[in-house]
Amino acid sequence: MVLLLFAAMVVAAPLLSPADPKTQHLGEGLLGPSRLHPFGQDRLGRDILSRLLYGGRVSLMVSLISVGISLVLGTAAGSISAYVGGWTDELLMRIVDVFMAFPGILLAIALAALLGPSLQNVIVALCAMGWVAYARISRGQILILREMQYVQAAECMGAGFGRILFHHLLPNARAPLIVEGTVGMAGAILAEAALSFLGLGVQAPTPSWGSMLSEGRSYLLIAPHLTLFPGMVLALVALSWNFLGDGLRDLLDVREGTIRSDPFSS
Known about the structure:
mainly alpha
């Protein structure tokens, strides 16, 4: 419910925003919540609620794109690695091991710093950080599924790799990947906020939750609303994605395995 409300508010940001998020009123800097500005104003007099709504657009777009690309790349790499095996499996898994040797957020920070601060480079950094988890999950699932009788029957009937992968393997491996992608949304939102907080993400005057927290940390004692509202929204959205992932994990019963029965047994 929280995520649906968040998505609706982000989409309707132009209608819900009390003011333009980039319009400055220097004489009203650091003013607290009021009737015209429910969440107060920042040091340049910009409306915080408006900037939160438009910053949510950035966070949602970055997380959706980065998780989507990571899911596709990781699933493709893991599936090919598990099904083909041999030196292909060894090569792809050693590449995965190299990426996993670095803490994810540090790798993202290094890439963002190397490529330069921009929205596109944030997405590249998050994709480089996130695809390995999907690769390992999909590989583990495909290694189990390829030994199933219905997959071996399809191979004996002359089905090609593409048909086996898309009609028999991936449909049965989708549950843990969906759960990982849902939880990954929370991680991507937090990582984007962290990069923007460090000045490596979205650049001014485009609003971002991370940059809003960074700007407000110098005024914690005299204007706590600058960090209070962005921090609460960021935490609430991230927790909601995590709760959704936990719910899907229980619903899909991933811990007990994604394979209920052999589809050719009945």
